[in-house]
Amino acid sequence: MNLTDFRFETDADGIATLTWDMPGRSMNVITPEVMAELNEVIDHVASSEAIKGCVVTSGKEAFSGGADLTMLQGLRDLYVGLAREKGEAAAMRTFFDESRKLSLLYRKLETCGKPFAAAIHGVCLGGAFELALACQYRVVSDDASTRVGLPEIKVGLFPGAGGTQRVSRLMQTGDALQMMFKGEQIKALPARNSGLVHAAVPRDQLVQNAREWLKANPQAKAPWDDPKFKLPSNKVYSPAGMQIWPPANAIYRRETNDNYPAARAILSAVYEGLQLPIDLGLKVESRYFAKILRTKEAASMIRSLFVSMQELNKGARRPADVPASRLKKVGVVGAGFMGAGIAYVTAQAGLDVILIDRDIEAAEKGKAYSHKLVSDQIMKGRAKTADRDALLGRIIASADYADLKGCDLVIEAVFEDPTVKAEVIAKVEAVVGPRAIFGSNTSTLPITGLAGHAQRPKNFIGVHFFSPVEKMLLVEIIMAKKTGKKALAMALDFVRAIKKTPIVVNDTRGFYANRCVGNYIREGHLMLMEGVPPAMIEAAGKQAGMPVGPLSLNDEVAVDLAYKVLKATKAQLGENAVDPAQEKLLAEMVEKHGRLGRKNGKGFYDYPEAGPKRLWPGLAELTKSRLDPELIDMQELKERLLVTQALEAARTYEEGVVTDPREADVGSIIGFGFAPYSGGTLSYIDNMGAAVFVKLCEKLARTHGERFKPNRQLKRMAKTGESYYGNAEKKTAA
User: Fold this and answer.
1) How far is 427 from 398, CA to CA, in rounded Å?
2) Which of 96, 239, 320, 413 is the most buried (most CB within 10 A)?
């Protein structure tokens, strides 16, 4: 055999070891070349009398992250091309055959007559775990880094190489469905206890354990290939089986609002497949997989949440001619909630942190936040006491700005007041060196204005984190008018070091994310003032695909903050820049009723100490009119909540605030949760088509006002048939 991605050897007992170790890659991934080599290995093992069985393991720190999703993108492109050349039927036949090659390969391994065992350390996800499921024996290391799972749902797909059929034959049906719906990664011991794997052993015993099992079980078969095999939850059409499906369908509806075709396909593939022999079940799965792979939801989610995110994380926007930054020491000024979170993620990345506040007590309080976060991890078994000690040892709490000397980067996260920030800039510049980069974490104040207080504006840049810092993946990097390439490069290097995803935007009030999400919250406010029942507003947001409704989101970010931003906007841009109905609502909420949001336990919702939050009954008294719920068009409510965000994204793109569709889409999903199934704000428009989107905007503008009026660039695109991604590809090609 001529193997490149694998190493193959056989011991004296006739047990072969296949080590997956792709050259030039940090992680093994499934590619057409890997599939071809695996096919060759299966033939060799099956035909060699000297080989009794084969262990499949990895030569890297992790087993594998699964399939290269660009391979699946290529399949979709193949279908489009063939449909154009040979017609729909011929394209579909070829597409179906190509899309199930991996499933057939794994079934060939499973039935070749010789047993295979998977020895897994580190992550083993997606198509890689489906490979393990096709092996007759699975053993994992009991290391904390070991995880198995089928996360395909997170990129708009579902397990299409046997996962739906094998998992639902290994676990109780309800547990199997939940695992695939959530796309969760399962630790070693829970995986063993649930029946997904057979054993969990120390890493140094992993391969030997698999070998011993193969020697003892040379005739092993998959359980479903035994004529006496019984399903864990009994037959679908049995009293036990029918206890599962009605609630499973209800849970699917509640969790997805029917926005994710892949989730429905999981239900259908399992429901139908469990009524059939394994080979027919696999064929059913393949048909659903081929269907889902052609959906716009899968294409958009793969592009935004896999391809684009990878490109941005690897530095797609980083100036190529600037050498890599050697970050060692980072200053954080302001030890409040945001500053404390920034200090934590920075220290977690192995960098030294100087955490500054007005006095040592405030600085130590900020450091204590890191202590709490790591302690929570220790309680969950995800960290050790030594990890906490090491992390806290990297954070120095101080009230002395002189301690910032030697910092490569300083980030201020002080109060949102230009005067306060100007004082901080002066104090920092008085002690740091001329090469240090200054980053301002602000969510509302234009960076160019703040940079005007700096002695070295080329070293000044916006670094906008989202709350809570330790959980949110997005960081907006904001370019002021005089920001230099070195500042941009260092900011991007820093974001990469702390394992966040950056988007680069040009300076404007509210930047990109806050402009879009601000429109979402405003639309919820205006609906409320129109007389739409608040429960319907919140339900419309969730049904549209947002993580929470607009009123709930406003409570989280603080109602008084929204009011403050509105007043500042009015003061700077004039009365026409704000909506009087929204202003009236916020004024009454904050000034009259003292409802500031979750932070003081009362906003649009009440937050009782015991029990879940509930909408504040007093909202009914804030509006003059009350619409009849029976006469309200729920579809229009959903459209308003999504269109207002997508339209604002289109405006920022036309203005040059966002210059790359990838950043607009990725930023919208991981920054403020814009309907992930759509692929993001600009993909939402592209998938609909600019002409259709413009008509929808014009319809909403006639009914609800000028805020829905489409911008000039969108109107032009509607006439010419252009798209955001199509235009971006033309620019790249040029």
Assistant:
1) 14
2) 413
Least confident stretch, 112-126, 195-209, 379-393, 490-504:
379-393
CATH 3.60.15.10 holds for 329-509? no
Instruction: Give dist(CA 545, CA 549) in Å, integer.
Output: 10
CATH 1.10.1040.50 domain range(s) in the chain: 514-554+564-590+622-656+660-728
For residue range 320-334, list pLDDT tens digits in order: 999 999 899 999 999
* Tokens read off for 522: 């405003």
317 touches 663 (CB < 8 A): yes
| Residue 570 amino acid letter | K
Instruction: Return d(Cα 620, Cα 343) in angstroms, integer.
Output: 43
Full-model pTM: 0.92
User: Residue 468: is the preceding peptide bond cis (ω within 30°)?
Assistant: yes
pLDDT, tens digit (0-9, with 9 covering 90-100), for 44-63? 999 999 999 999 999 999 99
Task: Please state, for a pLDDT cut of 70, what percent of the chain lies above it.
Answer: 100
122's CB contacts (< 8 A; 6+ apart) are: 58, 60, 61, 62, 63, 141, 143, 145, 146, 147
The pLDDT value given to residue 734: 66
Q: Are strands 329-333 and 352-356 parallel, antiparallel or unpaired?
A: parallel
Q: Which two tokens stand for residue 9?
A: 């050897």
Distances (CA, A) of 161 to 37, 78, 214, 559: 17, 19, 24, 48
Burial, 440: exposed, middle or buried (Cβ in 10 Å; 0-12, 13-18, 19+)?
buried
Distance CA 230, CA 244 (A): 17
Identify the CA nearest to 305 among candidates 700, 685, 667, 715: 667
Phi-psi map region of 443: left, alpha, beta (phi>0 left; psi -120 to 50 alpha): alpha
d(CA 350, CA 391): 8
What pLDDT is attached to residue 78? 82
- What pLDDT, on a 0 to 100 scale, did the predictor assign at position 511? 93
pLDDT band at 662 (very low <50, low <70, confident <90, very high): very high
**Structure tokens that stand for 671 in this block:** 């920054």
Distance between CA 441 and CA 472 in Å, rounded?
14
Could you say which of 2.60.40.2700, 3.40.50.300, 1.10.1040.50, 1.10.8.50 is the CATH number of the domain covering 514-554+564-590+622-656+660-728? 1.10.1040.50
Burial 322-341 (b: 16+ CB within 10 A, else e): beebebebbbbbbbeebbbb
Beta carbons of 121 and 64 less than 8 angstroms apart:
no
CATH 3.90.226.10: which residues of the chain? 6-294
> Which CATH number describes the domain made up of 6-294?
3.90.226.10
pLDDT(520) > 90: yes
Rg (CA), the chain: 28
What DSSP assignment string belongs to 195-212?
Answer: TSSSEEE-GGGHHHHHHH
* CB burial string 546-572: b at 16+ within 10 A, e below: beebbbbbbbebbbbbbbebbeebeee
Active-site residue list: 464
Encode pLDDT of 586-628 as tens digits. Answer: 999 999 999 999 999 999 999 999 889 999 999 999 988 899 9
What is the tens place of the pLDDT at every residue in 237-288? 999 888 899 999 999 999 899 999 999 999 999 999 999 999 999 999 999 9
- Per-residue three-class SS string for 230-282: CCCCCCCCCCCHHHCHHHHHHHHHHHHCCCCHHHHHHHHHHHHHCCCCHHHHH
